[in-house]
Each structure stands twice: as structure tokens, then as C-alpha cells.
Amino acid sequence: MAGVQDQLEIKFRLTDGSDIGPKSFPTAASVATLKETVLAQWPKEKENGPRTVKDVKLISAGRILENTRTIGECRSPLCDVPGGVTTMHVVVQPPSTEKADKKAAHLPKQNKCVCVIL
């Protein structure tokens, strides 16, 4: 019976409302392992998918989960429903535009004023 309690059923909710999973994970698994699973099972037909684990943020019980923590450390008391499935929300960070950032750093700042007459 202890082996069953050391597992959590987790599904991943994407921003469009679709789900990946549910899948069973040991409580000793790291958040980085969950992110690797999301990356591997990401639907190929969806645009703007994550390229690396660093592009994925997992949110559970209103908290952004850190890669180095385990699922057992991150779970909330609400996850302790027997036979329940925990839903984690997946947020994909947009790819950074390093070239645009470098260009903007070299340009002098311009004062812009906008007036609106109603």
C-alpha cells in the first residue's frame, strides 16, 4: 500500500485548455523530470511549443515549481485526495530575441509623447 501512496497521478493543462496525461509519477521525481515529460509529449500540431526544458514553467496550487525540487516537496494538501489527479498548468516562455535586445541596448533612448484629445 505504501508504494501506491508514493505515486501521484498528474495531468498537464496547456494554455489552450487541452491536457497531456494523466500519468503516474513517483513523489521522488524532480520537477525537471516532469518538464522533460511535457517536452516529449507536447502535441506536434501545436504552434509555439517549447524547445527546451528551460522554456517550460509548471504551476501547481498557484506556485511556479523549481526544477531542483521533488514532486513530494511541491505538493499541496489538496493533492492528497485518494485516487485524485493533480492538474499542473503549463506555461511556455516565448523565445527570447537576443538580437533585438542587443540592438535596443545600443540605440539612444528617444522621448515619446502622445497626446489624445477627446
Automatic annotation (TrEMBL):
Membrane topology category: Lipid-anchor
Gene source species: Linum tenue
One Pfam family of this chain: Rad60-SLD_2
Protein name: Membrane-anchored ubiquitin-fold protein
UBL3-like ubiquitin domain residues: 6-116
Function text: May serve as docking site to facilitate the association of other proteins to the plasma membrane.
Record key words, sorted: Cell membrane, Lipoprotein, Membrane, Palmitate
Subcellular location: Cell membrane
Classification via InterPro entries: MUB (IPR017000), Ubiquitin-like_domsf (IPR029071), UBL3-like (IPR040015), UBL3-like_ubiquitin_dom (IPR039540)
GO terms for cellular component: plasma membrane
